Amino acid sequence: MRNACVKICSVSFERGLHTDSIERAQGLRRCLISAVMANVGGEDAAGRRSRRQRAEDALTAVGDAPDAPDRLRRILEQTLVFAHAALAAVYTLTDDGELLCLVEWAGVPRTQYGLRDSYAALGGSAVADAHHSGRPAWLGPKELADRAQSRRASAGDFHLAVLPARGQGGDGCLIAVSEHPDGFDAEDRDCLDLIARTLAYPAPVPRTEGGALPSNAFNLAMDTGHVEVGDDILDLFQITSEEFDGKVETLLGLTVPEDLPSLMSVVEADHMSIGDRELEFRVLQPTGPPKWLRLRGRLLPGGEGRPARLYGTVADASKLRSDVTDVARVQRLAASLATAGTVRDVSQAVVAALRTPLRADRIALAELENDRLVVTVLDPPQPESWPELWRSEWRSEWPDAPVRAMPTLAAALREGRAQIWPAGTPLEPALADVGPGGLAVLPLPAGGRMAGACLIGWDSPHHFGPDERALLTASAGLAGQALMRAHAFDAEHELVGMLQRQLLPRRLPRLPGAMAVARYLPSTAGLELGGDWYDVIPLPDNHVALVIGDVQGHSAAAATLMGQMRTALRAYAAEGHPPDVVVSHANRLLMELETDLFATCAYVDVDLEEGTAWCVRAGHLPPVLRHPGGATDIAEAEGGPPLGVMTQAEFPMTPLRLQPGTLIALTTDGLVESVEADIDAGMDRFAHELAAADPTHLGQVADALLGNARRSDDVALLLMRYDGMEMRPRRESWTVWRVPEAVGHARRFTRRTLRSWGLASEVDTVLLVVSELVTNALVHTEGPVRLYLTMINSRLRVAVADTSPRSPVKPTSIGWEATGGRGILLVEAMSATWGTVPVSGGKQVWSEIQLDR
């Protein structure tokens, strides 16, 4: 699909099209690439969803704006994306029923396939036949050659689809062209049928003879220049109906001379292509500055024997336009740069201050690092809006270009003053395509050197007045100083972020029957370290601990304490303590550190086998559960005080029940609390956004939840999706009483368990390991002893727990006369692997035995 998009967009440049067609193809190319990339990325995201279902979603999104002026074109663009068409067009029937006229198209210009502006409704064309019969027509190269449908020199390399369509405003046809060798496949045709039934055509151009126009509308005959105008438009031009002679030249004479070229491109038929047009222009006023007006028009062909007509509206746009002087603009730029903290903030402030007043088509701002330009902002951001050289030779979506590759730019930077080149100036290709209608290069001076450069380009010929030159010069000096300050701020902030990331897990572990992702965003409000943290701790017996917390304040002390608390919680959890004991130990440790800071924490111990969890809160936000059906609950988990506040604090445990597909979300207050909304409203919003997310891809869910995060505080987010284990281990346990027959009882329990599991053939090896481990526990420890047997897949795990924290030591050498010390050596010899793990107040010695089956 991506290759098809590139092919569609490149055809219009290779065949020498009209300027309007090229501009339209360029704009479409930008739209297509973003849409196709979203579609390609959505293939995986959609899972088993069909292309038709994705097309339905896209058409539904378009339908949410039924009054949008470009709605019809946006529907046609879905044809290019989902039906893999190179061209899509709509023809509607005129009022008299004689012609099917083109009203909109998208994709490669229609002239490349010989499509006309109109077809006779009763003629012999494929468009007329499909409209008359009400059945779709699918024409291949041979059928097209027989019909002489194409005017191309080579007509045998595309397929044509014509589908009758009935809309809200009339009826007509949807036409699509495919350059694929096999034409439209079944899915393509299914999507075309869906789009044809979705189309809602605009009503034909109103016949004004004998009827009045709306007060804000006009109707212009393109051959004679006679125009019918509503009363509201005459009021905007400050002319009465008695004074108006019906000539478009009269209205053009009242406009600002600089705006005439753009208006002439609309009212002259040679410069107007089929479809919508919108532009803003100024009209002179008896007193005061000119008034801004907005024209929206649609050109439809009149058909054979009748002239084409331009029908549209004119509205007052002065409220959207500011009569701010250039001095005021410089003052506003200075104010915005004073609060810009990062290089990107500075770049965006410069773009906002310059592009709209200068009516520039593109603007780029770059830092100068040694001999290279590192671009920080491109506006518009689409790579295809910028020269091909920037992407091909420098091989970067956002170019990191050597200054020596652009001698004109290098000379401007050496001279240190703004340079302006009007349209037609011969420049190197890397700059000529930035501003074919005019280019301005602003070196950004700061501290006796050049901090960067700003490139401003226009597509149509642009006249540089003295006011613009003064605005550019003044803006360059302000931007250079701000860029240097922001660069230093960014460097310090990056160092702070790097230090803080070192205190967080580098990667999360893989979990059996679950998946976890985490995100961390440092605050951009200052340069101090924050105290938010998260952790995922694998525990024995397929348990996992999810931890998230926040240390009070933003400072090096807060970050240090955060690292200590994360390490302590991990250590206490690894010792095998239950969740409330883990949090209590962490609280006691923080009290003993004698710090003025406190911390909040949420600890969730999840049993991945049973789908149960225990939650402990220490002054932190409760977890949010998203159930498989999409409903969300904010867990009503009773909480204790923050860590480090009370020595004798209780931290109750709250049970949670998880079904396969349940999503657990833990976050810090930086994501849900703000000045405008309290934390309860933020949690409700967080739960609502989680309910709307697709849990299939946790990374995308996390990114979406952080999309509106306020960066005035640190943000930590931890998500885990519980899927359920495909194969659950089989478990049995036995309490070993300290009696003379204890080892024999343990062997009988083991033999009985293995027989019930169908492992009678493995009993000798397992019994030997059980005898040695149980004997060691009874001889070398005191207190209760418990035996655990676990089988999963082809491995049997034998574990013996006791109350002594000391691990058994394997002897280095044993003499012939020694009476002990061989037990661990036997266990090691009979096991695939063995070891010890701490449990609450003691240890567990375990051995894994590989079974034959």
UniProtKB/TrEMBL annotation:
Domain of life: Bacteria
UniProt entry keywords in alphabetical sequence: ATP-binding, Hydrolase, Kinase, Magnesium, Manganese, Metal-binding, Nucleotide-binding, Phosphoprotein, Protein phosphatase, Transferase
CDD domains in alphabetical order: HATPase_RsbW-like, PAS
Domain GAF, residue spans: 342-493
Organism of this sequence: Streptomyces davaonensis (strain DSM 101723 / JCM 4913 / KCC S-0913 / 768)
This enzyme's EC code(s): 3.1.3.16
Entry function: Primarily acts as an independent SigF regulator that is sensitive to the osmosensory signal, mediating the cross talk of PknD with the SigF regulon. Possesses both phosphatase and kinase activities. The kinase domain functions as a classic anti-sigma factor-like kinase to phosphorylate the anti-anti-sigma factor domain at the canonical regulatory site, and the phosphatase domain antagonizes this activity.
PPM-type phosphatase domain residues: 514-722
Protein name: protein-serine/threonine phosphatase
Catalytic activity: O-phospho-L-seryl-[protein] + H2O = L-seryl-[protein] + phosphate
